[in-house]
Write a structure and sequence with these properties.
Shape: globular
Strand order of the largest sheet: 1-8-9-10-11-12-13-2-3-4-5-6-7
Number of strands: 13
Largest sheet: 13 strands, antiparallel
Number of helices: 3
Distance between the termini: 32 Å
Radius of gyration: 21 Å
Structural class: mainly beta
């Protein structure tokens, strides 16, 4: 994939997600230096430092089971504009994702669902070329990710598992990523919704809070969508990330504040619509436009 399609804020959020899930250290074992036969000084190899990263999340008590069925099809459309005060540039993208519940299978003696998807993304100010992506996400009955495969051009990305205590990620993190995967459609916290629902999650690095998230149901309402009227839980999501702990400088301060309003289908517990802001600037939206 051409470098011109890499969005600065996307890199930032991906970094946040990587840190949230743990560090991948390449070549952790450094080779010993060759024997010093000339008596010259040499620098001893240093050990790799891995910060102590922990996820602290409230308990999620399911109020319904996963409602997905093999053969279900969903189509989402989304738009995104990068925050100027964070990136120093103006990047706009739009796209759509078609998702199919492909099959149900057994994994580690448990039932899991395989969701296949095809995405089309277009960057409005980076030429007319449309980027096509595809892949599959495997989730368990609690909505947690078991495995993920993503393909774009000649690039293939494979990842395994979410932290079992993790209920999902901030909506903005998914919006700014180049590839909108099915894991935003149903997340573990969605299966625990009730009219009094409130849930918090923190990530600490070396004992200090690096990010915090809060999800709260602020009402139940019927909304108009391109696929008709739907009764939904209206959820408010707020998150704060310490950019300085990621070694990242932000134009305004050392914290990145995100908030989103999400509408979750009252019965099916899937994402119907969402709008997101970073630093009080609206950056993106996603909407379910077709369901079969």
């Amino acid at each position: 994939m051409s470098n011109k399609y890499i969005v600065p804020i996307g890199i930032l959020i991906v970094a946040i997600l990587v840190i949230g899930g743990g560090f991948l250290i390449l070549n952790p074992y450094q080779p010993s230096p060759p024997s010093n036969t000339n008596g010259d000084n040499f620098i001893e190899p240093t050990s790799v430092f891995i910060p102590d990263i922990k996820i602290h999340a409230g308990e999620l008590k399911k109020t319904t089971d996963l409602q997905l069925m093999v053969g279900d099809e969903y189509k989402y459309e989304y738009k995104f504009a990068s925050p100027l005060n964070l990136t120093g540039g103006d990047t706009k993208m739009s796209g759509s994702t078609d998702i199919t519940v492909d099959r149900k299978e057994r994994y580690n003696k448990k039932d899991v669902f395989v969701l296949k998807y095809v995405s089309k993304v277009k960057y409005e100010n980076l030429g007319e070329e449309e980027i096509n992506m595809s892949g599959a996400v495997t989730i368990d009955k609690d909505g947690r990710i078991i495995a993920s495969i993503s393909r774009s051009s000649d690039v293939q990305e494979i990842s395994l598992g979410d932290n079992e205590n993790d209920g999902g990620g901030p909506f903005s993190s998914y919006v700014v990523a180049m590839d909108f995967k099915p894991d935003i459609i149903v997340q573990p916290w969605m299966l625990a919704l009730s009219e009094n629902f409130e849930w918090n999650k923190n990530m600490t690095m070396a004992g200090k809070i690096a990010s915090s998230e809060r999800y709260k149901v602020i009402g139940v309402e019927e909304i108009d969508t391109k696929d008709g009227k739907k009764k939904c839980y209206k959820v408010e999501e707020e998150s704060i990330t310490r950019a300085d702990m990621l070694g990242t400088e932000v134009a305004t301060n050392n914290k990145i504040s995100e908030r989103a309003t999400l509408w979750i289908d009252y019965n099916k517990r899937i994402l119907v619509k969402a709008e997101s802001w970073i630093e009080n600037l609206k950056i993106g939206s996603i909407e379910l436009v077709d369901e079969k």
